[in-house]
Amino acid sequence: MAAAYSLLPSPALIFCVFLFSFSTTLSLLPGLALGSVTRHYKFDIKMHNVTRLCHTKSIVTVNGQFPGPRVIAREGDRLIIKVTNHVSNNISIHWHGIRQLQSGWADGPAYITQCPIQTGQSYVYNFTIIGQRGTLFWHAHISWLRATVYGPLVILPKLGVPFPFPKPHKQVYPLIFGEWFNANTEVIINRSLQTGAAPNISDAYTINGLPGPLYNCSAKDTFKLKVKPGKTYLLRLINAALNDELFFSIANHSVTVVEVDAIYIKPFKTDKLLITPGQTTNILLKTKPFFPNASFYMFARPYATGLGTFDNSTVAGVLEYDQPKPNKIKNLSLFKPTLPAFNDTSFAFNYTTRLRSLANTQYPANVPLNVDKRFFFTVGLGTNPCPKNQVCQGPTNTTKFSATVNNISFILPSTALLQAHFFGQSNGVYTTDFPITPSIKFNYTGFPSNQTVTVMNGTKVVVLPFNASVELVLQDTSILGAESHPLHLHGFNFFVVGQGFGNYDPNKDPKNFNLVDPVERNTVGVLSGGWVALRFRADNPGVWFMHCHFEVHISWGLRMAWIVSDGDLPNQKLPPPPADLPKC
């Protein structure tokens, strides 16, 4: 059940915040603290036995919690989070969506901004939340450990600053979607990489770690949200699933979407929504004015466009209204929502085009109008040849699955890119010749594709001068079938200025770009069989990862990195690394 807590202005809250139960509703009372403060958290990475679907296994967790603890702060606060690794796996934690201005050493992706934290070691993530407020999350950023190592990161507005929408009665912290695997996810991905086959799919989806009554042996493991009639609730949705975009709906209720990826948007009503891995969405739920003599399912199930198999199941939570006393009804009707078909790309397109920035005085949309650097990146699947004297299980028995950006399958280095860049030791670690356009031009979205492209493997980056305005077009390819790809950029938000189906036309399509109020976010779904155009300003010196947020695709190489050079002023330079930066 969701419980209620007050955000009281008590110094003890800095320590008590660890103890809040995971699925909770918080009253919007003044609090957390007066002004910007430093908040300390302690993350102990430890094994913990968890039972789901009548299957018990030992999983990697933070503080023995699944999902992990909530991190709550206000805009302007400093977070100091000490992570200590007590398990045999290496670990790193990414604070997904945090800009990390002048704190790139705290971003978290293993072998990009840091070496992983080894067994028995600790690392302190130290960063300040600058100019951001809303719903984000944190997760492991090495191998597939984020299957169980994830949790919400909620940034409240500065004290006294209201939401740009009607004040809700309560907030729900959070509804976080995940995937449950009965098998060990590290074994799954390691076997896939060895054989070249697609990895096994999940056994269930979860809401706040609970699969719900539609799965075997799971009626008791159901997320239930208690509400009162005639009230407005702010629900913070997070998709932490490994490999699946999700549709979501609440039976017999419409909601108002007010924020995505910790950016306020022009509110709009809908009875269903789409959220990709790596994305967050805040919605206002206005409950019915009177007790409805019923309860209502909340469903989430996948939006899937690729040719491979996927977990075509549904996670269910229940929206329950407080009943008037004393005449409580025991057997209430339970209504089900209707969700789009699993491959409904038209809904995905129409939904995402409704997302628009507020673009007002208080929350402007600072879209770069003039472009200094233009890039055209293809994203999609391909193949690598099978090693000699081995039979593989990719598309053929002589190939392994691969995934690429501009036909480059990115190989993680054995030391952190940021360290190599900062100390001028790039030789043998990375090269700066990542192609700005595909080396081979073809009909990217033709179907069936008759294009065979030899995948290149390497650790290549793009170098950007400080404060350059960047336009990036991401083009899906159909070499092994068209597919939607949720692309996440570390260290920046970007504006989604255009999207469309088919092949991007640089002569025609820019005429339709929205440069007035495009949505601003950190993760975007590249349309299946289509393209998306982004703009951002490279105002954050450091090394920044960009990758598909399907864990299977990032494992296959659909990833790359941007190096943003220092500017001239002191506040435009990356400071030296902290003394406890992990060593490889």
TrEMBL record:
Cofactor annotation remark: Binds 4 Cu cations per monomer.
Keyword list, A-Z: Apoplast, Copper, Glycoprotein, Lignin degradation, Metal-binding, Oxidoreductase, Repeat, Secreted
Catalytic activity: 4 hydroquinone + O2 = 4 benzosemiquinone + 2 H2O
Domain Plastocyanin-like span(s) in chain numbering: 45-158, 173-323, 434-567
EC numbers, comma separated: 1.10.3.2
GO cellular component: apoplast
Name of the protein in question: Laccase
